What we know:
Blueprint: E1 5-9, H1 15-23, E2 28-33, H2 36-46, E3 50-53, H3 62-71, E4 77-82, H4 87-95, E5 100-103, H5 107-119, E6 124-125
Parallel strand pairs: 1-2, 1-3, 3-4, 4-5, 5-6
Helix pairs in contact: 2-3
Amino acid sequence: MKKATVLLADDHPDFPQLVESLLGTTYEVVGSVSDGQALVEATLRLKPDVIITDISMPVLNGIDAIEQLRKSGCTSKIIFLTIHSGGDFVRACLALGAVGYVVKPRVATELLPAIREALAGRIFVSPLGSSESPA
């Protein structure tokens, strides 16, 4: 069975290594980029099954990068992995067709379930505080 391919995008130098270690041998990491423009270029070249991206990145933020990719016809499953836990961010990401939203403090426990749900065609959102509900 072919492993699902994953592209990572985060401007913090150590974070992609952490994510890659969490993914282990279950998924094939095909690349790691540190800004939104590089994310767009790498996605168009590599066509990953899953994109795991931060929101706050230089050159082009993650939301704008995903918006460009969607307009270009990209069908990769999108999971945002970010420090932003506000409902406005969640709504904006889901409106772009993201199927996952994980807050970084929960990466160790929620990223793998988010990827599994995304690949199964379901949505995964980290539980938010009651004042930050995405509804």
